[in-house]
Design brief:
By secondary structure, this protein is mostly helical. It has one domain. It is built from three helices and no strands. It starts with a helix and ends with a helix.
Length: 46
């Protein structure tokens, strides 16, 4: 999965839920490490 796919998937995961999503769930859903998730979130921030 490339970077843009992960960004879109993370956005869909976060947008579709009412409660915070645990980091472990994000790691499994996005098939990546904690560091990668941090970089993706940083890319989404304004």
């Amino acid at each position: 999965m490339d970077r843009m796919q992960r960004i879109y998937k993370l956005h869909r995961i976060i947008s579709s839920r009412r409660h915070p999503v645990p980091r472990t769930v994000l790691e499994q859903e996005l098939e990546c490490s904690r560091a990668t998730i941090k970089r993706i979130i940083k890319a989404l921030a304004p």
